[in-house]
Amino acid sequence: MSWREYWNQDTPIYVNARHKAVHYELIARQLVDALPQGQPSVLDFGCGEALSAGLVAKRCQVLHLCDGAELVRARLAQKFGLLGNVVVMAPEQLGEIPEASLDLIFVNSVLQYLSRADLDGLLATWRRLLKSGGQLLIADVIPPNVGLLTDVAALLKLSAQNGFLIASCFGLVRIFFSDYRKARTALGLAHYSEADMLAILSAAGYDARRRAQNFGHNPARMAFIAVPRP
Fold first, then answer.
1. How far apart are CA 22 and CA 11, in angstroms?
2. pLDDT band at 151, cuts 50/70/90?
3. How many angstroms separate the CA atoms of 25 and 14, rounded?
């Protein structure tokens, strides 16, 4: 099984519905704050179910929600299909987006599931899709020194702040015995240092810097802002 196949099903990574809703609303509000001025054209690559994407769409001329899982795309289409400026698409459909037409590409909590070859290919594709001066925003990159215990601590803090701490304790036990842990062990997760990411982005034709804050609830992970070089 690949990671793409794994995500094409209901998974145990959220301890309950409250956790899932809090996660997506947090990401959406942080993304809204990071959007360029005006009515930008945006691609959210690897968006997941993006439950609060409506908040982002209100600020966009067009919002492309791209995910590799067919099940996820069906749910996105059902939830956001009536919004005229939201386009749900598979990664194979990126070629349908005109070149040099996007103001922002947002890639959150995706790199850990990609091979290096896939990442290099996507960096080239994203570069073609961005306008001159457009931004690639890559978030939730896992450094080599950040492991499962750090992730658990960040989740417990989020759950305590949002009223699902007890559910998190039970949920963590469930996740430990779930197929997600088995998939994580079998397939692995990609880790990158800050220097690694900056070097990869530079080699792909971007000027990049680390963002001061990550997206989401885990401050130990990293985010980067990259702009294609002319």
1. 17
2. confident
3. 14
Q: Is the pTM of this model over 0.85?
A: yes
Report the candidate in 200, 76, 221 with the shortest Cα–Cα distance to residue 144: 221
Residues 6+ apart with CB under 8 A from 188: none
User: Any idea what the CATH number is for the domain that residue 152 is in?
Assistant: 3.40.50.150
DSSP state of 96: G
Domain encompassing residue 167: 3-228
Burial of 172 (0-12, 13-18, 19+ CB in 10 A): middle
Report the SS3 class of residue 103.
strand
Backbone angles phi, psi at 223, to 5 degrees: -130, 150
Q: How many domains does the chain have?
A: 1
Question: What does the pLDDT look like over 105-145, one tens digit per residue?
Answer: 999 999 999 999 999 999 999 999 999 999 999 999 999 98
